[in-house]
Design a protein that fits this description.
The chain is about 50% helix and about 10% strand. By secondary structure, the chain is mainly alpha-helical. It folds into 3 domains: about 60 residues, no CATH class; about 90 residues; about 180 residues, Orthogonal Bundle (hpI Integrase, Chain A), CATH 1.10.443. A 3-stranded antiparallel beta sheet has the order 1-2-3, covered by helices on one side. Strands 6-7-10 form a 3-stranded antiparallel beta sheet, with no helix packed on it. α8 runs antiparallel to α10, α8 crosses α12 and α13 crosses α14.
């Protein structure tokens, strides 16, 4: 052991060829920026760190703060590491069916592309000022207000989780990002009808169902033959699940709001089902809609690519806008009460229905004439 030459601390052997700086009651430092004090070079490095700390104290800095600055922080306290553990927690929830794969995928992308800004910063350094600086860096990179709001929201969700675990005293205040109201493209009924007619008859079923009954794409893909009830004069559809990922074999979990709903089957949908569905599939829980080549459940790409092809030169409306959004608006224009539309769409929050169901300019003109 080296004998102390100053009262602040000294370099001592940890056994073998490893060394550490002993600061008595303030603890020990055995590495610098992840580099362990090992061998003769490690001993020289440790001595240099001790001399730097002594110089800082001689300039008037408090010994405690200088030592804390050189002491390596636990990775559990680093923001990037903490968010990584949060993502792992979300992935466990996806496996349990409590979160969607899309959410976990977005969190993983955020961890990979945007969180490096927080590298080596600890949780205790996550202040409003730091969050505002991060948001400003996103502005400089010309990210949209919606993306910035989503990124801040993801980090806030991680902080809330850490606070519930007792690893964070409280969730810091987050900057607010004003996002312009999103105005989705709403297609008139005649345009939707035209696009549906462009889809080959054998492939039309899932698009017809989405457009006439307002189901989400993930809900359409998850339907099984057994979800269609043909008893009585009115056929009914049990909507109780949704595909959680983009692939044919992706996990199937609950609907977005975790609420089941039983809907009357639209006459056009019923007619298509009567001509194209093998009802023996009920016995083996076969998918209601499949890829015509592989006969597997529709993947996200397979479902969307047909819509993108037929809409070319007609509209830029996405499948979601051209079916679910337009269905809600068409129902509103037809005079159906918005609360009934909400129940049909499965919205727990009326504000969601209000965002979906927008009156077209044509309808506004009609109301103005009354």
């Amino acid at each position: 052991m080296d004998h102390p030459t100053r009262r602040i601390g000294w370099v001592s052997s940890k056994g073998g060829d490893r060394y550490e700086i002993d600061f008595r009651e303030l603890g020990r430092i055995s590495s610098l920026d992840g580099v362990t004090f090992r061998g003769d070079e490690g001993k020289i490095l440790a001595t240099g760190v001790l001399r730097a700390i002594e110089s800082a104290v001689a300039r008037g800095e408090a010994l405690e703060s200088v030592v804390a600055r050189y002491r390596p922080h636990s990775r559990k306290r680093e923001i990037v590491a903490a968010f990584s553990r949060f993502v792992s927690h979300v992935e466990d929830l996806v496996e349990a069916g409590d979160r969607s794969e899309k959410t976990a995928r977005e969190y993983r992308r955020l961890l990979r592309t945007e969180l490096p800004w927080w590298q080596k910063r600890t949780i205790d350094e996550m202040t409003f000022a730091a969050l505002e600086d991060w948001d400003r860096s996103l502005v400089v990179r010309k990210l949209s207000p919606k993306s910035r709001k989503n990124y801040l929201g993801a980090l806030r969700a991680a902080c809330s989780w850490l606070a519930r675990r007792g690893e964070l005293k409280s969730v810091p205040p987050f900057p607010r990002v004003e996002v312009p109201e999103h105005r989705p493209t709403i297609l008139p009924r005649e345009v939707v009808d035209f696009l549906l007619r462009q889809i080959p008859e054998k492939q039309r079923g899932p698009y017809l169902l989405a457009a006439r009954m307002g189901l989400r794409p993930g809900e359409v893909r998850a339907l099984d033959v057994s979800d269609v009830s043909r008893s009585g004069k009115i056929w009914r559809l049990n909507v109780s699940k949704a595909v959680q990922g983009p692939h044919s074999g992706s996990k199937i979990g609950p609907t977005k709001n975790r609420r089941d709903r039983v809907l009357p089957v639209h006459p056009e949908v019923r007619e298509w089902l009567e001509h194209h569905i093998d009802w023996t599939g009920r016995l083996r829980r076969a998918p209601l809609f499949t890829n015509p080549v592989s006969h597997k459940r529709l993947s996200h790409t397979q479902f969307y690519e047909v819509w993108y092809r037929v809409r070319q030169g007609v509209t830029d409306a996405s499948l979601y806008q051209g079916t679910k959004h337009s269905f809600a608006s068409d129902a509103l224009e037809s005079g159906i009460d918005i609360n009934r539309i909400r129940k049909f769409l499965g919205h727990s929050d009326p504000r969601s229905t209000e965002r979906y169901a927008k009156l077209s300019d044509k309808s506004l003109d009609i109301f103005a004439e009354r």
